[in-house]
């Protein structure tokens, strides 16, 4: 039998009785000069959040007093409040509440507890604070000041905690933090479920880990798996990279993450983004599914595709499925498309780009197609392999292999190796032509200034009468070497050596066959006309496909 000292205060008479108190309730009351009075309701009024535990069909059970050293009772007060003092212990179902002093109210099945407050739920959940307001009907506990909620190795700290015993969830609404062996999480609002091990945070969320810091608007965190679920604008900052995301998850143990909704991973001057990114911060590896983009702000280049990946440690990028590269170091951006592309950053200044199969590129001053291509920014050379064709204004260059030498991303000169052919379109039926074993085209202000042919040089060109601007005829030559100088896209002078052979045929006497050198092919239907046209699949006509030994990109 529970025994305690009961002091009954009524009309100035004190009566000492023995008894057992089984049922009590809650009122906002306090003790002043040994008499129960109406309490200050400021603390309760500050809590304006609706109770998580306001659920229908909840069964109400009584709160029991297990122990107290002193009980004082004043019947004149509302709800017949009772004051308990010294080693106070309450029980509600399987939960125990301890404090130094308390008020309880039979009519409302509730209590207020003061000083050294402690709640115990089984042997795994402990809550501490300076003040407790508990309603046995709703099973809501409201703890204030120096509150700690401990569930095994997880501790929640705050000054304002509401704990719903019915659903076993504690939540704070005026700043708090949750700490486990790996992470510390802070926010203005937060809640924690010991059953599911899920913590939810809103407003000014900060997750601190020895290796990184996560800032978020809305976040879920599993204290068992240590996985943080991103549900709002968030940023994860570490020494190696910064992640910007509004949806996804991050494993704080393995440093693996799945980032959705066009998230971004920033590593140095590289920005990796996409619809879905599987990112391993430990390995520095990001794999992207859908609308992949990797941008190098230092070297002013961007690689895109519907699938790709990037390795921070090797600085290797891969893109496929509508792969497209943007090089925007010049006023006019170069657009390059291929089935598959790779990009390696050699150091802070240089990169190597490789494009495989179906290569097409476009810039207003330069267009090209080939099977595969490689670009090294260190030597500023673009290598085109297998049926390469290069266009500049009215000029077309083709051969087995083409090397394009750039100066600050602007074409300086091009080298056509083996089966070289250069064509300038004059009108729909007239073309200046050069052919030979080897050809070099030199540019000035992004236009052809000089052409040099070495070995088996052949040419067809149309001299123009300076007086009336009409064709004098068609000149066809053969020699070992040939150099042609151009001015304003027109023939300025011609040098042929040694032992040149040539004929001049009047225009009226020309047959169609006589107008063209052997292997003449004008590929205007293949030429890219803008960046959107890069994705057009174009195949050479069968009769135009050259039969010769080909090089490929290794």
Give a verbal description of the structure.
- This protein is mostly beta strands and 554 residues long.
- Helix content is 1%, strand content 61%.
- The strands form two sheets. It has a 38-stranded mixed β-sheet that branches. Strands 3-4 form a two-stranded antiparallel sheet.
- The longest helix is centred in the N-terminal third of the chain and has 5 residues, at 42-46.
- It is rod-shaped and about 130 Å long.
Distance between the termini: 91 Å
E-strand count = 40
Gyration radius, in Å: 42 Å
Helix percentage range: under 10%
Indicate the proportion of strand residues.
over 45%
Mean pLDDT: 87
Helical/strand content category: mainly beta
- What's the helix count? 1
Sheet with most strands: 38 strands, mixed
Overall geometry comes to rod-shaped
Query: Are there runs of 5+ residues with pLDDT below 50, and where?
Result: 1-53
Task: List the SSEs and their pairings.
Blueprint: E1 5-10, E2 13-17, E3 29-32, E4 35-38, H1 42-46, E5 64-67, E6 70-74, E7 82-92, E8 95-105, E9 110-121, E10 125-135, E11 140-151, E12 154-164, E13 169-172, E14 176-179, E15 184-187, E16 189-193, E17 198-209, E18 212-222, E19 227-230, E20 234-238, E21 242-245, E22 248-251, E23 256-267, E24 270-280, E25 285-296, E26 301-311, E27 316-327, E28 334-345, E29 351-363, E30 366-376, E31 381-385, E32 389-392, E33 395-398, E34 401-407, E35 410-425, E36 431-444, E37 447-461, E38 474-487, E39 490-497, E40 501-505
Parallel strand pairs: 1-6
Antiparallel strand pairs: 1-2, 3-4, 5-7, 6-7, 7-8, 8-9, 9-10, 10-11, 11-12, 12-13, 12-14, 13-16, 14-15, 15-17, 16-17, 17-18, 18-19, 18-20, 19-22, 20-21, 21-23, 22-23, 23-24, 24-25, 25-26, 26-27, 27-28, 28-29, 29-30, 30-31, 30-32, 31-34, 32-33, 33-35, 34-35, 35-36, 36-37, 37-38, 38-39, 38-40
């Amino acid at each position: 039998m529970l025994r305690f000292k009961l002091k009954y205060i009524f009309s100035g008479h004190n009566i000492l009785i023995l008894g057992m108190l089984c049922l009590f309730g809650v009122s906002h009351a306090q003790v002043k000069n040994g008499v129960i009075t109406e309490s200050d309701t400021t603390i309760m009024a500050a809590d304006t959040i609706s109770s998580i535990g306001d659920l229908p069909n909840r069964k109400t059970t009584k709160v029991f007093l297990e122990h107290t050293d002193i009980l004082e009772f004043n019947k004149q007060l509302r709800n017949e409040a009772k004051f308990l003092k010294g080693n106070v212990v309450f029980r509600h179902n399987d939960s125990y509440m301890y404090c130094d002093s308390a008020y309880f109210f039979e009519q409302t099945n509730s209590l207020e507890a003061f000083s050294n407050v402690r709640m115990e739920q089984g042997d795994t959940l402990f809550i501490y604070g300076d003040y407790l307001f508990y309603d046995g009907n709703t099973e809501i506990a409201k703890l204030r000041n120096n509150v700690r909620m401990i569930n095994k190795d997880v501790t929640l700290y705050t000054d304002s905690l509401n704990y719903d015993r019915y659903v076993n969830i504690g939540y704070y609404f005026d700043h708090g933090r949750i700490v486990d062996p790996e992470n510390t999480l802070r926010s203005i609002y937060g809640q924690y479920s010991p059953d599911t091990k899920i913590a939810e945070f809103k407003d000014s969320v900060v997750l601190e880990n020895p290796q990184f810091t996560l800032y978020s608007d809305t976040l879920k965190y599993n204290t068992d798996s240590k996985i943080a679920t991103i549900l709002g604008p968030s940023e994860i900052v570490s020494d190696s990279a910064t992640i910007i995301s509004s949806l996804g998850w991050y494993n704080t143990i393995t440093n693996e993450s799945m980032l959705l909704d066009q998230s971004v991973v920033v590593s140095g001057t590289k920005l990796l983004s996409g619809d879905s990114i599987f990112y391993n911060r430990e390995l520095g590896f990001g794999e992207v599914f859908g609308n992949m983009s990797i941008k190098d702000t230092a070297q002013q280049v961007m690689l895109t595709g519907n699938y790709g990946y990037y390795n921070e440690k090797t600085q290797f990028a891969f893109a496929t499925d509508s792969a497209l590269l943007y090089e925007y170091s010049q006023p006019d951006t170069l657009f390059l498309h291929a089935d598959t592309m790779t990009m390696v950053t050699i150091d802070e200044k240089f990169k190597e780009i490789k494009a495989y199969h179906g290569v097409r590129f476009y810039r207003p001053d330069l267009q090209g197609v080939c099977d595969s291509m490689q670009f090294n920014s260190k030597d500023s050379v673009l290598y085109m392999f297998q049926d390469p064709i290069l266009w500049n204004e009215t000029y077309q260059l083709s051969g087995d292999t083409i090397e394009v030498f750039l100066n600050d991303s602007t074409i300086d000169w091009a080298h056509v190796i083996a089966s070289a052919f250069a064509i300038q379109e004059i009108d729909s039926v007239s073309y200046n032509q050069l052919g030979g074993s080897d050809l070099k085209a030199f540019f000035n202000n992004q236009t052809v200034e000089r052409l040099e042919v070495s070995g088996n040089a052949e040419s067809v060109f149309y001299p123009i009468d300076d007086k009336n601007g009409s064709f004098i005829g068609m000149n066809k030559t053969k020699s070992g070497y040939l150099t042609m100088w151009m001015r304003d896209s027109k023939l300025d002078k011609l040098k042929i050596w040694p032992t040149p052979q040539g004929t001049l045929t009047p225009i009226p006497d020309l047959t169609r066959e006589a107008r063209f050198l052997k292997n003449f092919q004008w590929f205007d239907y293949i030429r890219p006309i803008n960046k959107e046209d890069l994705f057009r699949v174009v195949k050479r006509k069968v009769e135009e496909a050259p039969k010769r030994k080909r090089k490929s990109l290794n």
